[in-house]
Design brief:
The protein has 89 residues and is mainly α. The chain contains 2 helices and 2 strands; from the N terminus they run ββαα. The protein has one domain.
């Protein structure tokens, strides 16, 4: 069972049961994970910039933190999914 990088409409985890890592849904999940990881890199860079700016206001800091929390959730889901597959990359 593979933990997919998205949740259902009810917010619960979605899983994929397949032995084919090249199936359409497996490839889609791989693409979504790659996009989430790339986005997390950008969010991290932006958050570092905001935190390094002594003139950054509360609104900018809250925005950066909100995006960082969202990205951290995505990255943790990818890590959990890959560790269950024995495929930490």
């Amino acid at each position: 069972m593979r933990l997919l990088p998205w949740t259902g409409a009810d917010g619960k985890p979605c899983y994929l049961s397949t032995d084919d890592p090249d199936s359409l849904l497996s490839r889609l999940a791989d693409d979504v994970e790659a996009a989430q990881l790339a986005s997390a890199e950008q969010v991290l860079a932006g958050a570092k910039a905001v935190l390094g700016d002594p003139k950054a206001g509360e609104r900018a800091v809250r925005f950066a933190l909100t995006r960082a929390v969202e990205s951290l959730g995505d990255v943790l889901r990818v890590a959990v999914s890959r560790s269950r597959e024995g495929d930490i990359r």
